[in-house]
Amino acid sequence: MSTLTWQWIILIAVNVVLFWVSPWSNKVNDFFRGSHNDTPPSAFLLTSSLVICWLFAKSITNAADLGYQFGIVGGVAYAGYYLSFLVAGVIIYRMRTKGQYKSIHHFLQTKYGKGAIILFTILIGFRLLNEIWSNTMIVGSYFGEKGSMPYFASLTVFTLLTLAYTLKGGMRTSIITDLIQMAFFVLLMVIILGIIIPETDGGIKTFVQSGDWSMAQGVNLLLVALIQVLSYPFHDPILTDRGFIASPKTTLKSYLWATVIGASCIILFSFVGIFAKMRGLEAPATIGVAKFFGTILLLVMNTIMLTSAAATIDSTFTSTAKLVHIDLLNEKGISVSKARLTMIAIAVFGTIPIFFNPEILSATTISGTMVMGLAPIFVFWNLDAPKISYFASVLLGVVFGFWLVFYPIPTFMLLSEGKYADLLSINLFGTIACFIVFLLPILFKKKIESTN
């Protein structure tokens, strides 16, 4: 059989297995909060779910490509984003134990009102749509050239099969299948590393010593990651939803473990890109290395992309259902049937744009830069801030994000040289500005109160 035929067999087989093991549930707590007969998920289940949801197809492709560009520095830089688990875990723990908040939307509604909810929902809505098309496009790229019939057919079938098993049990299905997908990921990554490391003179030492620890060679991006982790995790409902479904202590433990495991996996997967660069293979690194070793590794790489993409997309479906029916509509007597219809709708709206102009999708993505204004909102979640602090910070962050996308950064603002220098500068100055506009109304308010 041809390689393409094997790829189709794997695609269908993986999803059939996931459909078979997926539990069926109509219980509200199971469907929206991942419980089993109203018992919250364990730390082990929650940790695996957190990790695999962020080891999505686009993410591991980026890790390999950054390893290709900057060596181990690129892998470490991208792994820096996984400190998002640490930041979110600690803040959500305190929000739950000190503030008694039941969700991110509960916090925003209580402190900043309905308008804050609407603005926040717009930001995370783009994020959820992007999760679908960015991952399915990666899957499609393994089946054919972008825009070809095999490309469109594979990503469509993949999305429909993922939707099918997610509809069975919502969040409960997502968490159970995440455990299986995480096991798949680790096994397949071990196989890949077991192939490329022995093929490299010097072994692991060669990979670890690759790259140059300079600003222009990846350190710029590492600093960007360290800045963005203050805001980035809070515009990802897949990550934050899982912060409210188990006990606070179990949740904090899971987020801390997810930080270590997730960052380690990203660094190790960057070895694929480092190997590709050393062998002079063409980018993208994952496909280049897979083709270099032949059919078997291509199928392994294809499978790892399928499992990681499915884990993220099924979580996207469940987070969208929760966003609409619990966070926004706050329905009484929540209908699981309606939630399933919402999942179908997001699958359609997240896939259709790919058929028209894939290039435009990158321009419509709400990037980590555009949500920098969320940093002071959550870092200082317990401050008595007026509504103007929220809107000023969030909207200013969006302005800085659009500035980065559409206008060049003046040379005098650049803090370093090389790739990502503009990204670093805009994130540093923008984040500082967002903290200032958030805190000024608070100080002004206190001054008035002390005067009176």
From TrEMBL:
Reaction catalysed?
Answer: L-proline(in) + Na(+)(in) = L-proline(out) + Na(+)(out)
Q: Does the keyword GTP-binding apply?
A: no
- InterPro entries referenced in this protein's UniProt entry, alphabetically: Na/Glc_symporter_sf, Na/solute_symporter, Sodium:Solute_Symporter
* Protein name per UniProt: Sodium:solute symporter
An annotated GO cellular component of this protein is: plasma membrane
Q: What GO molecular function annotations does the UniProt record carry, in alphabetical order? A: symporter activity
List keywords of the entry alphabetically.
Cell membrane, Ion transport, Membrane, Sodium, Sodium transport, Symport, Transmembrane, Transmembrane helix, Transport
The way it spans or sits in the membrane comes to: Multi-pass membrane protein
* Transmembrane segment boundaries: 6-22, 43-60, 66-92, 112-129, 149-167, 179-197, 217-234, 255-276, 296-318, 339-356, 362-381, 388-406, 426-444
What is a biological process (GO) this protein takes part in?
sodium ion transport
Q: Which family does it belong to?
A: Belongs to the sodium:solute symporter (SSF) (TC 2.A.21) family.
Q: Name its cellular compartments.
A: Cell membrane
